[in-house]
Amino acid sequence: MIRFLLNKREIVLQDFAADLTVLEYLRNQEGRCGTKEGCASGDCGACTVVVASPAEGGLSYKSVNSCITFLGALHGKQLITVEDLAVENELHPVQQAMIDHHGSQCGFCTPGFIMSMFALYKDMPSGADRDHRRRMTHEYLAGNLCRCTGYRPIVEAALASTEQPRSDQFSIDEKEVAIKLSEISDHDSLDKGIGVEAFLIPQSLSELASTCLENPSARLLGGGSDLALEVTQQLRSLDSIILLDQVKELRQVKRDGNRLEIGAAVSLFDCDKLLQTRYPQISELLQRFGSTQVRNQGTIGGNIANASPIGDLPPVLIALDARLKLQRGEQTRVVIAEEFFVDYRKTILQPGEFISAILLPLPFEGQMFRVYKVSKRLDDDISAVCMAINLGLDRDSQDEIRINSARIALGGMAAIPKRATKCEEILQSAELDASTIDQATQALDEDFSPISDARASAGYRIQVAQNLLRRFHFEVSDNSIETRVEHVA
Ligand SMILES: Cc1cc2nc3c(=O)[nH]c(=O)nc-3n(C[C@H](O)[C@H](O)[C@H](O)COP(=O)(O)OP(=O)(O)OC[C@H]3O[C@@H](n4cnc5c(N)ncnc54)[C@H](O)[C@@H]3O)c2cc1C
Ligand code: FES
Ligand code: FES
């Protein structure tokens, strides 16, 4: 059994297909056709809905793509769709702003934009200045595509609606909804039968461990932003799913000496917030990871476990010498991140084993860390090449820079995310100067034999990787050279 709120109405489902998406449920079973299907792969935002969950002081409202969200993942949450925003004949402020600013022509994308604007409206800190509001607006709308209106009126509508965020009907009902959602969780934590036979919802780490052992062929579900595509794009059926979202231990972050222990089910959105001051470069990368919807859904563990050669976080974790905590039954082991990846989409995970946490070393004295993502678009695009460079540097009295330690990892250059070992050898214990960088860029040619595919040719990939190393050198040695593309405010 799963229970959730569809706006204020409680839904209890005893029986549903494990791989039924929220979009299919809304359109086919609830007759809520305001939520549109465009791409069914998380790319266009036409299917955006908002999911509210209990958070400190009330609820947190997150936009997600309903086409790649499985229905069972709504257990204990409130689902809000475009049909819920207007009260009787009065439009929600985001809807009114869309009309006032002429933000809709054919209207196909409009419900999706409205829901992203609604999430923005709920998240906007009061007193945010115009620059801050514009930055957040671009961030929250980057996962929605419009093919006819053009983005300026839509952005203007979003800005206008957040100028003076007022309380809406959701703020008025928030406490009541939060209580109701906690009741669902409390009630169900006493009830062993959470989920249905094919959609299992363990509530603790030990329950997850035993559920995985008992169901070794069931698929683990983080945010589903990869897994759901097997259903919607490859038209496979997933008979049995284990949800990670309700396992509190997997959503925690702890400090362990000079490392952070990040639970595998921490969302990419939360990772971004967590790392903003410690590793602003990772945060910058995460802001270009998919879209707000994808970052709200996707988890750090999912980005590692899917073992994609073009996943953004694996090169970062390898370069930073992160470790992964794995668990199978009661047995746990800690492995070096780079040893996790065996071959194209193959990992060392055994049947019934899962990633429980990521152990991320904190920055150290003299560390120079950079990560560069090269993709065709700035937002919502997968990397052609992603390069993470982690050097330990010593500056001597003549202002020369010596490299003490070098770890460099790249995505998009091989069947797995991989270290550039020959390049590292050149850098290790050398002066950080133009001649060392020249030799190191040549070594990248020996380290990798990338393939050509739809994203980039092999030659382009090598050239880009070499240029990124040169760019790193410019950035650490000469601040006057412009190397960055910024969002236009
Ligand atoms: C529109 C769109 C844009 C995207 N953009 C990017 C991008 O810019 N960069 C990028 O790197 N990726 C991108 N992705 C891919 C995806 O969002 C990420 O890989 C994300 O981190 C996956 O996390 P998830 O929790 O959604 O994984 P899920 O889909 O839930 O799971 C992925 C796989 O990992 C397994 N799994 C999940 N958690 C665990 C665990 N704890 N232990 C063991 N196995 C586990 C699942 O069984 C599944 O096989 C994008 C995807 C979409 C749809
Ligand atoms: S239909 Fe395009 S993101 Fe869901
Ligand atoms: S209004 Fe037609 S696609 Fe946006």
Topology:
Blueprint: E1 2-6, E2 9-13, H1 22-29, E3 48-55, E4 58-65, E5 78-80, H2 93-100, H3 110-123, H4 130-141, H5 151-161, H6 169-189, E6 195-196, E7 199-200, H7 205-214, E8 219-221, H8 227-232, E9 241-243, E10 253-256, E11 259-263, H9 268-275, H10 280-287, H11 292-297, H12 300-305, H13 313-319, E12 323-328, E13 331-336, E14 341-343, E15 346-347, E16 353-361, E17 367-374, E18 385-395, E19 401-411, E20 418-419, H14 421-427, H15 434-447, H16 458-477
Parallel strand pairs: 1-5, 7-9, 8-9
Antiparallel strand pairs: 1-2, 3-4, 3-5, 6-7, 10-11, 11-16, 12-13, 12-16, 14-15, 17-18, 18-19, 19-20
The structure holds flavin-adenine dinucleotide and FE2/S2 (inorganic) cluster (2 copies).
The site of one FE2/S2 (inorganic) cluster has 12 residues, from loops.
